[in-house]
Amino acid sequence: MRLDKFLATVGLGSRKEVKGLIKKGQIKVNEKEIKSDKFQVNEWTDIVSYEGERLFYQKDFYYILNKPAGVISATQDNYEQTVLDLFDESSYREDLFPVGRLDKDTEGLLVLTNDGVLAHQLLSPKKHVEKEYFAKIRGVMTEEDVTAFSRGLVIDGGEETRPAQLFIDAVDLVTNTSNIRLILHEGKFHQVKRMVKAVGKEVTYLKRIRMGNFYLPEELAIGEYRPMTEEEVHQLEGK
């Protein structure tokens, strides 16, 4: 692997930025100063260092974000704050992207990675990866709704949904509200809101709490993110 590609891959900077570091003699390979960006390194065995600190090769990166409302699930936007805008310089990578999307006003579990294979596995309709949501509802959800969701609904636009599992956690007859959890096996546009609307109610708050076997960590505050552990990635993969 070319030295400049190695440095960019490990997140030291863009391809242009790392070329500048190399030319200034700030990069060493096996304790020798290297000034050629075309220098070939073995990413697994060579010792590459910057300012005396060894750089370890990592191909794929995985982060878990507790997405706040008001932020869009995109990599860049000229007008709106994106989920990548929440990352600091030490974690930001140009190749990161959100796996799927959450609506601007929706909170909760969002995975960001540069692993396209994993993203495909999680989003492919053929995989039927479960996604679980918590929602607050204006209106009283009933057992009839549970049955209707379990059979699949026809939502606005004439679209048909796959069967979904609806759990009614709480109902308040005084305020005419409900708290629910909903497990989906697909990802249609605004699906939770549209399914609830199809039974005559309205979502007032929505949060994703699970993808596959991986739950949003309780200790991760709104707007916080962190790298995922190897075990957590395996949970996402269903292993």
Automatic annotation (TrEMBL):
The EC designation for this entry is 5.4.99.-
| Family annotation (SUPFAM superfamilies) | Alpha-L RNA-binding motif, Pseudouridine synthase
Kindly state a single biological-process term from the GO annotations of this entry: enzyme-directed rRNA pseudouridine synthesis
What GO terms are given for molecular function? RNA binding; rRNA pseudouridine synthase activity
| Superkingdom of source | Bacteria
Q: Which GO terms describe its cellular component?
A: cytosol
Keywords of this entry: Isomerase, RNA-binding
- Every copy of the RNA-binding S4 domain together lies at 1-60
The UniProt family comment states: Belongs to the pseudouridine synthase RsuA family.
Q: Which NCBIfam families match?
A: pseudouridine synthase
This chain's protein is named: Pseudouridine synthase
Q: Which organism is it from?
A: Enterococcus villorum
